[in-house]
Specification:
The chain is α/β, with parallel strands linked by helices. The protein folds into two domains: 155 residues, 3-Layer(aba) Sandwich (Rossmann fold); 135 residues, Nucleoside Triphosphate Pyrophosphohydrolase, CATH 3.90.79.10. The chain is 32% helix and 27% strand. The strands form three sheets. Strands 7, 8, 9, 10, 11, 12 and 13 form a seven-stranded mixed sheet that branches. The chain is globular, with a radius of gyration of 21 Å.
C-alpha cells in the first residue's frame, strides 16, 4: 500500500433507521482496508426514541449530547480524514443533513455513496464514490480525491468554496518549558492529527479570542498545565499541504509557555507525551515539520 505510513480515518453518516445495515457494511470495508472508523462504534441499535437511534455503545441518554459527541470525532480526523455518507437511493435523513453542514463548514472532506435526494446541498464532481472505489483510489494514490467542479457548475462551485472555506485560519502553539536545577526541558506530544509524529501543543484561535488567551486555553485543555506566556518565538504561514480540504492559509503564532509542574494529563487530542531538552528532542524524535521549525528557532536562542 502506498499509504502505509499515513493514517486515514473516517466518520460514517447516514440514517440508522433506514440504512444501518449498509453503514455497518461500509464500516467493515473501510476497517478491513486499514482505514480507522472513528464513529459509529461497531455495535447494534439498542432502541429508537422519538425517531432517534440509540446504539448499544452510546453511554449518554440525551440525544443532543449523543449527537455532539458524534460530531466531536470530526475534530480528530486529521489531515487524511474524511466523512462518508452512506445514502442508498440518495436519502441521508435529518441528523445526517445536520452533520453534513457541520462537516462542510469545518473543511472536512465529504464523500457520498449516491447523489443526495433529500437535501439541497452542493456536491462537487468527484464526491460521489463507493467505498470500494474510494479505497482503491487511496491505495493507488496514497491520498484522498481533491474536489473538482462540474463544467456547468463552476459558479456554484466557487460560491461553495467561498462559503465553507475561510480565507485564513490563525493557530497558536507553545513550546512548553520546565526548568529544574540542572537543565531545561520542553514538552512535546504525539498526535494522530500530525501522522503520529511529535508536535507542540496548540490549536485554532476562536472568534473574539486573544492569542495569549487561546494559547493558555489550549495548553490547559490538552495537558492540564497552567503557566506563564513568555516570549514570541516565530510567526509563519502555510498554504500548500495545509492538511485541509482546499488550499487554506494557516497563520501560526508560536510562543514560549513556562510551567512549574510536569504532571501532564492529556485529553483525546494527543496519545503520548515526552519531556526532553530541546537539542535532544530535535536529534532523536520524529517531529512534524512545523513544530520542528519552531523548536529549532527556540533552541537557537536558548542555547
Amino acid at each position: 500500500m502506498k499509504y502505509k505510513n499515513k493514517k486515514f480515518r473516517c466518520v460514517l453518516h447516514g440514517s440508522y433507521r433506514k440504512h444501518f445495515k449498509e453503514i455497518l457494511e461500509a464500516h467493515k470495508l473501510f476497517t478491513n482496508a486499514g482505514i480507522e472508523v472513528l464513529a459509529p462504534e461497531f455495535s447494534e441499535i439498542a432502541r429508537f426514541e422519538d425517531g432517534f437511534a440509540i446504539l448499544e455503545s452510546d453511554e449518554e441518554e440525551d440525544h443532543r449530547m449523543i449527537e455532539l459527541l458524534y460530531l466531536h470525532h470530526l475534530k480528530s480526523l486529521g489531515e487524511n480524514g474524511f466523512s462518508y455518507f452512506v445514502n442508498p437511493d440518495g436519502y441521508i435523513g435529518k441528523s445526517a443533513s445536520y452533520e453534513l453542514g457541520i462537516a462542510q463548514t469545518t473543511n472536512v472532506k465529504c464523500f457520498f455513496l449516491e447523489q443526495i435526494s433529500d437535501h439541497p446541498a452542493y456536491l462537487h464532481k468527484n464526491s460521489i464514490i463507493s467505498p470500494e472505489v474510494l479505497i482503491k483510489y487511496i491505495n493507488k494514490k496514497g491520498s484522498l480525491p481533491e474536489p473538482k467542479a462540474k463544467r456547468n457548475e463552476y459558479k456554484i462551485h466557487k460560491m461553495w468554496e467561498d462559503l465553507v472555506i475561510p480565507g485564513s485560519i490563525v493557530a497558536v502553539g507553545g513550546i512548553i518549558e520546565h526548568e529544574n536545577a540542572k537543565y531545561k526541558e520542553v514538552l512535546l506530544v504525539k498526535t494522530h492529527k500530525w501522522g503520529d509524529k511529535y508536535s507542540v501543543v496548540g490549536g485554532r484561535v476562536k472568534r473574539n479570542e486573544r492569542l495569549e488567551d487561546a494559547l493558555s486555553r489550549e495548553v490547559k485543555e490538552e495537558t492540564g498545565l497552567s503557566g506563564y506566556i513568555g516570549q514570541h518565538i516565530c510567526t509563519f504561514d502555510q498554504i500548500k499541504n495545509s492538511g485541509y480540504y482546499a488550499p487554506v492559509q494557516h497563520v501560526f503564532v508560536d510562543k514560549v509557555v513556562r510551567v512549574k509542574s510536569k504532571k501532564v494529563v492529556l485529553n483525546d487530542e494527543a496519545q503520548e507525551y515526552i519531556w526532553l531538552p530541546p537539542k535532544i528532542a530535535l536529534k532523536e524524535l520524529d517531529i512534524e515539520p512545523n513544530a520542528r521549525h519552531t523548536l529549532e528557532i527556540y533552541s537557537s536562542f536558548t542555547s
